[in-house]
Write a structure and sequence with these properties.
Helix content is 29%, strand content 20%. By secondary structure, it is an alpha+beta fold. It folds into three domains: 1-58 and 203-263 and 525-548, D-Maltodextrin-Binding Protein, domain 2, CATH 3.40.190.10; 59-178, Alpha-Beta Complex (Dipeptide-binding Protein, domain 1), CATH 3.90.76; 286-517, Dipeptide-binding Protein, domain 3 (Roll), CATH 3.10.105.10. Strand 2 (62-64) and strand 3 form a beta hairpin. The longest helix has 18 residues, at 490-507.
Amino acid sequence: MSSRFAAVLVSVLAGAAHSGAQAAPHDTLTIGIAESIGDFNPYFSNALVTIHVQAAARRSMTGITREGRVYCRFCTEVPTLANGRAVITDLPDGKHGMDVRYTVKPGLKWGDGAPFTSADFAFAFKVGQSMSPSTTITSVEAPNPADLIVHLKATRYDFDRTAPVAVPEHIEGPIFAAAANTIDYGNHSEFNRHPENPGLWNGPYLITEYRPGESITMAPNPYWEGAEKPYFQKIVWRIIENTAALQANLLSGDVDMSGEIGLSVDQVLAMQKNAPDRFDISIVPTLGVQQLYVKMDHPLLRDPRVRRAIAMSIDRKTIVTKIFDGRVPVADSFITAGEFGFDPNLGFWPYDPKAARALLAEAGFKPGSDGILVSPEGEKFSIDISAAAGNRVYDLQEQVMQTQLKAVGIDLQIKNQPFRVLLAEGLRMRKFGGLALLSWTPFPDWVPQIRFDSKQIPTEANGWFGNNVYGIADPEMDRALAGALTELDAPKRKLYWNDIVKLAKQDLPIIPLYVLTSQIVTPKWMTGVAPPPLPGLSTGWIERWGVK
């Protein structure tokens, strides 16, 4: 892991633990979040706000430490080739696959007391396959309540992380079986109809009350078997989508804490200056990247020269200087420095408005009477950009880019929407008008197959499921993604990664802007909170939070 996380690790080691016997006046914590949750089912949404909140109530078979090491949460031993829990198999077509065996720790229970077994992982695989079929996992078998076997039709470098995220079969099984289709299941899923059902959750906390668009309330899970028990007896997540209002609530004391889905960098810096005696502030770079999603099949954006011109018209350094006081690194790729696939020699397109104008002219665009370009088909070069409404920092970025693109003859129309609408319709159904301002939050050493593979393009035929909302359909990208996922030899896998990064720069399904930071505001009386390398996942260690 990159050395830039050293400060995070020191703070984690110094303040992660707390004493349950220590007297304190605070047993309720109110957290402000700036986005609503549109879907609680883990297989329907990978929005950062959903991950952030659910990490307090739901955990996976394995996890990744802040140092990048895979560890067991619910299993007895991490599968490896050395311990025999991972075995390379011979397939009928002459290729190689893998069988990966996990053993679930005995005595685990869901939040309603029902046994938590390997069958819940096998059932989850069926749910996931109905939405976004795996390209490498053929089946998941639960031969007994303890053992789970994942069958792969190819080798995978990340075989030790292939166990599905468990779904409680005793609750969701009958609903899934009765559903007419995937969308019908989503509409009737208990995750969305009654997220207060304790049997849905296996983390340190349970959701006890949900008020859509207003709040989420949690209480400790009595069946949590983790080594550390949660301190706070009640956690209230208040949804305040306007970040200026969230800042006011922190200052008034109505909200105790703002996590990663909260204030922008400039607002946190202002609080650090104006209320230094009331709050602890942390701003740390993460593995995430803020970027423009590009709708590649938009009539005005189909030509790669046009997409390149847009990238070269945006001065990313000016954005981070004006909005973040230069405290945020510019991003040169969809992955950050220190990650396995990053190559400092594969830089991004430089800011060059003159070259951008030349590319647009080469693509057949000519200035109109008002200075805005006109396409070869006679269409005015006017495209929409969408982001989550109510987020001040998004507004500022859009305004800067609007000015910069106008300088080369492109009319950028800001069409922001509530995040739940943008996610459900704009992205999932690919209805955004050309560009969307969103974040990319990968796990360490994660191959972006679900993002860039052509089979992951959401369409009406597949029920609008898939994360390739850009519409990139490049056979070379598909090949490189498959290679990076299935190659076990690290140097050879690095070559596939080089191709992925080069093709992303060439095809431009996304335009990277800057590296995301994790900014957290906590009251002086609180301890144990540390920003992790992954944005949004400080709650993955929420059981360590407490009071001084």
